[in-house]
Amino acid sequence: MSDKLSMNESEADANDENITVDLLVVGSGAGGLAAAMVAAKHGAKVLLVEKGSQLGGTTATSGGVLWIPDNDHARKQGLGDSSAKSHNYLRHELKSFYCKNMIEAFLRNGNAAVAYLEEHTDLKFDVLAWPDYHPSQVDGMLKGRSMVTRPFNGRLLGKDFNLVRPPVHRLMILGGLMVQADEISYFLNPFATIKAFRHVVMKMAKYAIDRVQFPRGTDIRYGNALVARSLLTLRKTDAQIWLKTRFKSLLLRQDGRVVGALVMRGEKQVRVYASKGVVLATGGFPHNIKLREQYFSKFPHAHTAAFDGNVGDGLNAATAVGAAVDTDLRSPGLWSPASSMKAADGSVSTIMYGYLDRGRPGCIAIDPDGKRFVNESNSYHDIIMALYDQNRGKDGYYFICDRRFIRKYGLGAVRPFPISPSVKPFVRSGYLLEGKTIEELAGRVGVDQAVLAATLDRYNSFTRTGNDLDFGRGTNAYNWQYASAPQYPNANLAPIDNGPFYALKIEPATLGTSVGIMADDRSRVLDTQGRIIPGLYACGNERSSVFRGFYPGGGCTLGPAIAFGYAAARDALGHKPAFEGDKNPLDS
User: Residue 9: what pLDDT?
Assistant: First the structure.
């Protein structure tokens, strides 16, 4: 580099290795992978660095769902979405936080990104039959805006399959078999039909073969498939991937342009010069206690489902060169209910409130006073926000159910029968609280017996009339996804009257951070004066949420991550912004 650097010279060393690339991408979640693929496919010399030993971060353990309104798949199916409807839905969702310019950027880049990636990479998506999280909102959709990554055969990666970070262990069967939601009923009752039996036998046989060569099953789904498909694409390009490489700081030229970064590749410090720019995609800071105390002061919590390597590396490096942090949001995080379970070795696991039990009929949420406070069939994010709106986030709450519910759906770490044949080990460990009567359970939970009994009586009366007078449970299409009690007037409501009764302590957990680096509609990082920092980009949970801490639909983390990762690569390579309807904008 001929121009002088204004980097901290104490970090430099004459023995440093120097390399030059076009684009440096830091982090291997959906946003970083998208940026790397788009740039590499256009012929740029790309280096992607990841401090972990495997790729994918939180994306690899996620559902792999993208919220992309008015996408091409939905258009082809004639589902009736449009850019105007998408804007209108988000305007009503975000209210005073709505920013037309940023939403327009998300919509046009999201659409163009999916079209480009499906045409030029191994990423493929399908529309899910999922409604928006608030389908009764103005221009909410019953289907079409959420897309899921198609399943993938991990064998196509060969030895590289081991570079894909595996899903959460407890969500796999037999230690390594991924099961899709529509397969669960087969595994719970494999002898119910010939079809179920055949499906289970064939899947188990394939899994047995896989385990001879691989540490887990190669039939992978969801976010794991997204990462694997992206890795396969990058292996077909000249892009370099460095694992176990720690990002230290940015290299800043005296004129204020970011020209690269210092990284630690094992024990070797490397100066990476990036002529087109640096894309930060390190996943936010959900595991950084100091930053959480700073930005989550009104949202106390102790748990997160995010990758434990997400500690704010990108945010700290960006602010060190003058980047602004965007804090003008409804919530600094995206939330889910979670329980915590202590293992025999003393370690504590965060158990997310999952799709098996989430919002199912026959379970209610009670606050520390023993009263319901929310529609339990609403989205995971909405449930926790309702708790914070009452200033009870630090206290958490309890799920209350009976024996019938827990055998059918499970609860937290407890799987449905027969996967978890008994709840006794969970009761003995203290993970579950049990009472033969509601009054006994109230004593174990620590709430007034009369109050909890009255809460149950009132709720049970709603199951007979079908009308939840308090919270309207079972009155919208999102709720109906979890309806499974057709013998009652409202399939989202089933009585809690078959003892013994159980309680599970629930606390807030982040799925990721919403607060982050301030960036513009092209993913260019802005300084505290609102000026562009040349050569520096941010995407994924690194940048502040385009939805301002709201959660409009399934996939509203990965959708913007890919949209703005795509935008970052385009801008770095000198291309015009994407426009609605672009199919292959990088060729323009």
Answer: 41
